Amino acid sequence: MILKTYDGSLFIFIFLTLNSITIITGQNFWKINSLEQDQVKPKEDKIVWCTITPEELQKCRNFSMANERDQILVGYKTIKIECVQASNKKECMEWLDEEKATMTTLDAGAVFAGGRYHSLVPIAQEVLEGGFNYYYAVAVIKTGTLSYVNSLRQLRGIKACFAGVETFAGWILPINTLLNEGGMDIIDCNNHVKSAINYFGPSCAVNCLTDQYNPIGDNSDKLCQLCVGKIPGGRCTDSDPYAGYEGAFRCLLEAGEVAFMKHNTIPELLNGLEFGGLTLNNFELLCKDGSRRPIGEYLSCNWGKVPSDAVVVSSAVSFDERLKLQRFLQRFAERYPKTHRNTTQSIFGNPNEPNRNVNDQSNNPYATDQNYNNNNNNRFKRQDYGEYNPYTRNDDNRNQNTNDAYNPYTRNDGGVNVNDPSNPYTRNDDTNPYTNNQNNNDAFNRDPYTINRDQFGVNIDPYGNNDNRNNYNPYSSDTESPYGHFPNKTHNVTYYEVFDLFESSPRYGIHLNLMFQDSARAIIPIAENQQTYTNFLGESLEIIMGIRTCPVGRMTLCVTSDAEKNKCVKMRTALKAQLMKPEMECYKGHSQIHCMQAIRAGTADVTVLDASDVYTAGLNYDLVPFISEVYNLEEPEYYVVAVGKESDPSTELTYLKNKNTCHGGINTAAGWVYPLAFMISNGWIRPYGCNSIRAAAEYFSKSCVPGAISTEYNTGVPYDNMCDLCHGASFRYCRRDASEDYYGHTGAFRCLVEGGGHVAFVKHTTVTENTGGKKREWWTRDNLNDDYELLCPDGTRAEINEYTKCNLGKVKANAIVTRGGYGYNETHINAYINLFLYAQTFYGRKFADEFSFSMFSSPPPYADLIFQDATTQLKIIPPNKRHYSDYLGSDFMRARRIVDCHAGSVSIKVTLLAAVPMIVLAFLL
């Protein structure tokens, strides 16, 4: 029995041991094979390039196929290029921001827009002929025209051609120059397009009517009158024939008098196919001093320097990934350099020089048989990119036995020299796949620890460039030639037409600068600490901000509570994010009266007031209303209503004696002036002259009237029962601001709901705003419209939505006020109006979340902070209605005199003072 047990245990031990050996061997086998597979097939990344035209899309696809053919490596990875087409650069920016695309190139002006509004960052920059990373902005006219223009100020009223509103040389620099030196007036602090509309005559500036540059929709079409787009919806957009620098030149030829463009635009175009009959002598430069210069003298006659175009990606791309993309871009530029040397720089030499390469041979891209080094066996074939479509396999049409270094489908198991260093794609199953090929595209396609055995352990940059390149010719190397072939030791080599990263016309049509500028010669990486739009633009950023200058530097908004101050700070941040001018600041006063005093003294500039406070501000402090709120009525006004509970039928408006009442605040229009004036004028309350506070205190049992015991609003005897229902704690008790829970329209309704009130005096939208589950506060839960009714002046009741026939009268909406009288400044008022109108365009939504700001909503548990939550829009008050009495109307003026003993005192004093000189004069006569 013991022996059997021992045999069984031994069998189990042997079985488990063999299984373990098998598993370990299998794991090692798969690890080895997996490693071999990874080494044989490099890892592949992907770039999605955003293009904006069909021609640019075609070039991008050719670029993708050339890259797939050549399998360019950085470190151990290749990259796959995909191409997408957007309608314009703005859509490209949005796609990059949404990670639908990886990169695109942007003009310096667009780099600002992309960085500021779409979180894009520049990672590489184009280098132009001569090693420069900038070009010059110039103004071009036709030779012999505009003879009367001898200074920039005389450009007013002429017909101008712009490349586009966001282009640096074609818009930003000219407009900034004219604002500073040409007498252009600032018409709109937040829309420089309006300044150009006011300055120029009929012109063409594409995109001037888009939402981005016409946010409130009041731009005229003056800057689109010369545009000629015929496509529906394409006129005066990027689809217009006059769009871009080429379009600006075409506009100058056909319709305009001056065009703003880059210094090399005209030479490039005249060397192309479209404008063969023109010469440089047909055009001249207009200098800032009013003089003229030939096109080639742009160094002494330009409007400023402009950074060359940049390649941008999303800021969400990691720095390691950006480094990899930078190396790929460099390798692309080195692998597919500019091979045509008779480009736009012909202004420095003979413009009729034939198109030849550095070996003095023809550079005709369509030649089918060209000889190099007088060797007839070396042929140059035009590249048929369709042959290298990775999704196309046609073995009948493809020669798979060729010794072609560019054919990724070549397989020859014995007919080629496997040690030929010029053929990285040759495969021979009998040879070592890890051939030590010193002529591989990338020097690090080997074990990094065998590259330099003498320095084992040194941290090697896998993205570094160890190419043995000539310092004077960055496009040459031991393994690559600018003509698109590897130097092959064999005598019979087939040459393929090279893909040129910086070529556009005539290969892809008549348009220039597809994907990259045709004048570019290289792509250089941007240092990590410079990869923001601000650092990249440098001094050019001042020019961009210069067209957004405003004659009014700041606007200080006065608020009365901590909650309003917090909202004001958020509003300031939101406006600053959109570069709104003038810059907004916040000031906290301890009451509305204090804000009025601060505005008159210049400490603050504006505040938002109830209609009754507008009366006080105008009467006592010479403030004027200039913008009013609009609710759900056509005009900036609302109905004053009395609200009672449906479950309390005994309460009626004609007899409220000993009832508990809820008011929005002392001397507020809906909460005090209209209700008290109505009851006093109808004889239901003893008036005590015009002392409405005493009348209410003796008529009502308990109330909440925020501010009733404040010496600023009640200069007489305080009545404590006017605050008995109020809810505020400590110093907040019965305060006339948002720190008191029962302040304002919503506060008065809350007093009715939970505070023991029988009636609340509010505006007609208040009940609907706080019932039916529209708010999350606990006191609003389970409240329905049907739970409340309107108390009508005739003693009857009505449904909540019947406020047009059951109300105490109409009153003007809350208004924004500023200095009047001797402090009235129309320029400042127009700037304030402009800021608020743009603010509501961007932030006038009704509902906000944690990631956005809304002017017309308040965070719980507050309501009606700064602006009423019921506000739908802001409306400008006409200048002839900006006196407080004209704005408020006669009904309110009469109601205020009934409830306020001091309502007309100042006016009476002014009248008497004005009458004294007349009496004296009459006596003397």
From TrEMBL:
GO terms (BP aspect): iron ion transport
Keyword Protein biosynthesis in record: no
Signal peptide boundaries: none
Transmembrane segments: 906-924
Domain Transferrin-like: 47-385, 555-901
Domain of life: Eukaryota
Gene3D superfamilies noted in UniProt: Periplasmic binding protein-like II (3.40.190.10)
Name of the protein: Transferrin-like domain-containing protein
